[in-house]
Amino acid sequence: MEVFPTVISALICVVVGSALGGTARYFVSGVVARRLGETFPWGTMIVNVTGAFLIGILGALATHGSSLFAASNPWLFAVTGFLGCYTTVSSFSLQTLALARDGEAALAVGNVVFSVLLCLGAVAAGFAAAGFFR
Structure pTM? Predict the structure, then answer.
């Protein structure tokens, strides 16, 4: 029954990471919405871009066997749990659809284009920045 403690440990990492990631998303998105308004989903975009940057760093670090994030539980906590709950494609999708349905086609397209470009750029920047943590 050596598998059972390993599975429980992995589940705890995911649950705790998810709780913290969801809480962080709630606060970051809320602060941004209060500062910039809610006519455009800036909060979701900032959360997704910062999450993409962080996953870039962690992904690059995980490629080195000696890294903390090459191990299973830290990865499950940080990436699967925290960043999985922090970033949100579902909110992005719903907000983009709402913009389109409200007749704001240009904002909907802008949200898609800028989110994809910024998130891809953030992952690449995270990979580059990971060099500072090696």
Answer: 0.84
**Rg, C-alpha atoms of the chain:** 17
Q: Count the Cβ atoms, other than its own, within 10 Å of residue 67.
A: 17
What does the alpha-carbon distance between residue 21 and residue 80 come to, in Å, rounded to a whole number?
10
Which of 21, 40, 31, 56 has its CA nearest to residue 112?
40
Spell out the per-residue pLDDT of the chain, length 134, in tens: 577 889 999 999 999 999 999 999 999 999 999 999 989 999 999 999 999 999 999 888 888 888 888 889 999 999 999 999 999 887 889 899 999 999 999 999 999 999 999 999 999 999 999 988 76
**Is the CA virtual torsion 110, 53, 14, 23 positive or negative?**
negative
Coil, helix or strand at residue 58: helix
